């Protein structure tokens, strides 16, 4: 008897642009019986147009998608006959779910972007990093000396590619380079980084929000 499989995506954390990549990887191991993406359906996102997915409205609260996905995953494992799970998220919170599913003898295959913490990666039987090769390439632009300094600062304060807290940039850039972001047109660090999407990837707003640099945006810049 073939093992039943499920593809469950944290749509509030993973871009709909990766939908086809995730589904292709899952289908390489058989035809999935359940394919769902959990997100706030009231928000316009790429998941509304993702072919092959059932969009589950998780509500608007913080971590709503995480909680509903986890509840459904356990239900599918215990009474739904699912033996193999493909879970797509870059969120550390799914570490507990992966461990628990494996304790019940289920196979857990993770998908996530480069920022995915090692805890979730290690909790999965296999983990596939998505994003870097699937993302459209930004046109090459000159990289300023200032941005090279920012890249070096992020690299020095990032653990395993998870990034550096944006709130720490101001003090450390001033201490090392005498930089005051208020003297730049954007006026603050978040605005400056957001204005350069080809160079930086930011977490949503929050006291512990992090920034990562995009290697492809810097090209050969050291």
UniProtKB/TrEMBL annotation:
NYN domain segment(s): 4-129
Species of the source: Rhodovulum adriaticum (Rhodopseudomonas adriatica)
Alphabetized InterPro entries for the sequence: NYN
Protein name, UniProt field: NYN domain-containing protein
Gene3D superfamilies: 5'-nuclease (3.40.50.1010)
Pfam families: NYN (PF01936)
One Gene Ontology MF term: RNA nuclease activity
